[in-house]
Amino acid sequence: MPLNNNQRRMLRVMHGDAERTWSLNDLLEATGWADQVHVAGAGKELAEDGLAEISESHSSMVYLGKEGASAVENGLLEARIWKWYEGADDSNRNMAGLFSAGFERNEAGPGVGLLKALGVSVQGGIFVAENKKSVAKLIASRSEFIESIGKGVDLAELDSEMIKHFSNRKNLIFIEEITTRTWALTDAGKNIDESKLVNIELIGEVTPELLQGENWRDVEYKAFDVNAPAPIPMGGRPHPMQSLIERIRSVFLEMGFSEIEGDYVQSAGWNMDALYIPQSHPARTMQDTFYLSNPEKIELDEKTLNIWSAVHEYGHDTGSRGWGSTFDKEESQKALLRTHTTVNTVKYISQNPNHPCRVFGIGRVFRQETIDRTHLPEFHQIEGIIHEPDANLSMLITTLKTFYTKMGYPDVRVRPAYFPYTEPSVEVEVLWRGEWLELGGSGIFRPEVTEPLGTEWPVCAWGMGLERLAMLVLELNDIRELYQPDLERLSRMPIL
Fold first, then answer.
1. CATH class (in words) of the domain with range 241-264+338-492
2. DSSP string spanning 246-266?
3. What is the distance, to the nearest Å, from the Cα of residue 422 to the centroid of all Cα atoms in its chain?
4. How far apart are CA 276 and CA 446, in angstroms?
5. Rounded distance, CA 220 to CA 317, Å?
């Protein structure tokens, strides 16, 4: 049986300790190979030739998500709120006291919900804990759990109830399936003549230069097997993501919606301020948003800026108190890559404030996300609104349930949520593999959003990540599989 040089190299290394079971890292270090592909390829060929055997073990590892890493550094949300609770006077243990302590609205609502689940009730607007020891103990156990994960822990070593709890919370933990391989020599591999393991320069191409001399007599040529299997040419087909986009587009069009589009480059004003996102919000920092240097600024008309300023500072005529901070018009005119497609719908409403509409959009958005199995810095978002005099929450929920049913997921539920620009707000979940999976946010635009747009009608709005839905529909565990240049893998994905 002819051996290639990679096989020879791997066998020489393994002969140095023939009884040993070799890990991937062992072989990389011993061979000097930088790429594990060489080990995998040579190891597979040796196994096929009966010279080595491969053993596999599978495990599930738990890692901290973005919010989990933050929780380790700063404390879990419920732990921070509980610390405030214990230090506050009885009369100050309310939402106003919570805001005064520096908690943002996007933290306060979910945080209070977490405390309620732990046994804290609201009596006359005051938070009351009947059993403080029990609450403190539960929070301490959650904090210990998060801190114990570190750089990754085997799933089997962790408490299943804690796993279940944190899996239902956004970006705190994620689970990754790990396959570990080892290689060992068979008897045939141990007994192979070491003289056959010397590297040989194999010639794969006969050149004029080679034939002009006498060297061609002494070289060894790569074997050419005319019976070797050749790749089967595959006909063209749309990318799975494009197929999914077209499927979603057809569903919304069937439901009577019209499609709109918008530009990638937007002002911070239309992307953030129009949606009543405070200028101090963490999502507006350089760590979360791609700001541009060319163009650095997008000029906005003074009338629009004045309205946004009034809404943000004191609520204008919306009945709101606003955010109570000074509005920076220069900040509003910074250029950025859009972080969501909602910017398209708010612009559409501002251009058609008195025109009833049902519109949707599917487009790329950009955020400074760390690349992992569920996050990419560039992804797609599905956005939609219903803008008409009688729009209401029931209409919104019915629309979303109809959409997901048409997509093949009839079991849909909504849960209360918090978003800066909608009230009421709900998260949409579908039943998948026996578990509820959150797919997007929705709600009714707040008056702080609609008034500057020039409309008095309610606006039902929703947004969801397309890649998240793609993982569901295509049954993927890693979002990166969608964008790997592996035509064979892509061809095996179902045609949607």
1. alpha beta
2. HHHHHHHHHTT-EE----SEE
3. 22
4. 8
5. 87
The letter for the amino acid at 288 is D
Phi-psi label, residue 276: left if phi above 0, alpha if psi -120 to 50, beta otherwise: left
Residue 305: is its pLDDT beyond 90? yes
CB 314 within 8 A of CB 322: yes
185 close to 52: Cβ distance less than 8 angstroms: yes
CA neighbor of 447 nearest in space, from 421, 468, 466, 471: 421
Identity of the amino acid at 181: R
Which residues, at least 6 apart from 493, have a Cβ–Cβ distance to it below 8 Å?
240, 474
Give the class (CATH, top level) of 1-57+179-229: mainly alpha
Domain layout of the chain by residue ranges:
1-57+179-229, 66-171, 241-264+338-492
Give the Å distances, CA to CA, from 219 to 1, 26, 255, 287. 19, 33, 70, 58
Assess whether pLDDT exceeds 90 at residue 479. Answer: no
| Residue 250 clears pLDDT 90, i.e. is over it | yes
Q: What is the spatial distance between Cα 283 and Cα 395, in angstroms, rounded to a whole number?
A: 30
- DSSP H or E run through 36: helix 36-48
**pLDDT the model gives residue 432:** 80
Q: 248 with 400: CB under 8 angstroms?
A: no
Q: What is the pTM of this model?
A: 0.55
Tokens of 289: 């948003």
DSSP state of 190: H
Length of the chain: 496
